[in-house]
Write a structure and sequence with these properties.
Number of helices: 15
CATH superfamily of the largest domain: Periplasmic binding protein-like II
Order of helices and strands: HEHEHEHEEHEEHEHHHEHEHEEHEHHHEE
Oligomer: single chain
Largest sheet: 9 strands, mixed
Distance between the termini: 25 Å
CATH architecture of the largest domain: 3-Layer(aba) Sandwich
CATH topology of the largest domain: D-Maltodextrin-Binding Protein, domain 2
């Protein structure tokens, strides 16, 4: 339960925010993940055609950039929804709370795999996460110490790999794909080396910094949030690899192929059942204070969580979405639409907090 002072303060903030901005917007505004972007735009277009509401405005800002905009405040000048290719972080939720956003609805929409794609004209590639770490890391273990990454070609890492120079186009730090890449590849890969384990025992902060630092010598290139641009670059340079969401691969199977990682190919089946090692859930977050103020907000959520959209036979599957299992999907839809309630629980100060498994 919220205490009285919190409720009054929230109401005052809402009144001032919406009054200051003038008349309420008549169009939903959505920001966030480039991975979720194609799903969100598809739902938005159908929503605009099937209802009397305007087509929502959807911007691809990256998960981190979306969270920053979303958590900036309550009122028509701030987004109503943010898409995310990873779960909201505790520090982001704390920012929301500081800015008067005390009730946020989390909606898990399905799964995605992070793929290392390259042109279909290039030779197929199989690697382990340890080998990928050695290709991406700024420093690697050598002679019982950490040194700047000396590997220039794939064969430098393993004689069985390609004799081409390492060139990987990847996401920037604001991307949820980058966060997931760090957690599922970099952190896992570095734990296989005694030098990193020794560093972990001595200084956990330095351990994380060393494991998660990407090289800056040109082998890894931050290519922005636009997966379509990366696809074009991979077609132009068959020797390069690009880090993409599975949905981008699914839309370009005539041009691209994916690396097999730890003996698992990134297929819908392998991602949904957990066999593919670089898979993550996808989300979007709704600002509950805007429900009833911004026309069509709850109806948009209803369209997105309808069986015709996100089920195994839904239209989003054609865009590359890997649906939730039936039981989880039904529970998510019913819980969301019944009251658009927050997925956390009240904290000691009366504010809604996310579960404690959130990363800092």
């Amino acid at each position: 339960m919220y205490n009285t002072s919190t409720c009054i303060a929230t109401v005052v903030v809402l009144i001032i925010s919406f009054a200051h901005a003038g008349a309420a917007r008549d169009q939903i505004r959505i920001v966030g993940s480039s991975t979720v972007y194609p799903f969100s735009t598809t739902v938005a277009e159908r929503f605009g055609k099937r209802t009397h509401f305007k087509v929502p405005i959807v911007e691809s800002t990256g998960s981190g950039g979306g969270m920053k905009l979303f958590c900036s405040g309550v009122g028509v000048e701030y987004p109503d929804i943010t898409n995310a290719s990873r779960r909201i972080k505790r520090r982001e939720m704390n920012t929301c709370i500081r800015n008067g956003i005390t009730d946020v609805v989390e909606i898990k929409i399905g799964y995605d795999g992070i793929v290392f794609a390259h042109a279909k004209t290039a030779p197929p590639m199989q690697m382990t996460r340890t080998q990928i770490f050695l290709a991406l890391a700024k420093q690697i273990p050598k002679d019982n110490k950490l040194v700047d990454n000396p590997y220039r070609c794939w064969q430098d890492i393993d004689p069985g790999l390609l004799a081409t120079r390492i060139k990987i186009l990847g996401p920037p730090p604001t991307s949820g794909t980058r966060d997931a890449l760090v957690e599922l590849v970099m952190d896992v890969g570095c734990k296989g080396f005694p030098e990193f384990l020794t560093l972990s025992a001595k200084n956990i902060q330095r351990f994380h910094a060393a494991c998660q630092m990407f090289r800056t010598d040109g082998a890894f290139i931050e290519a922005g949030e636009n997966d379509n641009l990366i696809v074009q670059k991979l077609i132009a340079n068959p020797k390069a690899f690009g880090i993409l969401g599975f949905s981008s691969l699914a839309q370009n199977t005539d041009k691209l192929q994916a690396m097999v990682i730890d003996s698992q190919a990134p297929t819908s089946y392998n991602i949904s059942d957990g066999h593919y090692p670089v898979a993550r859930p996808l989300y979007f977050y709704v600002k509950k204070a805007h429900v009833g103020i911004i026309p069509g907000l709850k109806e948009y959520v209803a369209e997105f969580t309808s069986e015709q959209a996100w089920s195994q036979d839904g239209y989003l599957v054609n865009k590359g979405l890997i649906p939730l299992p039936d039981t989880e999907r039904n529970a998510m839809r019913e819980g969301t639409l019944s009251n658009l309630s927050f997925s956390g629980w009240p904290g000691p100060d009366g504010l809604a907090l996310l579960p404690n498994r959130l990363r800092e």
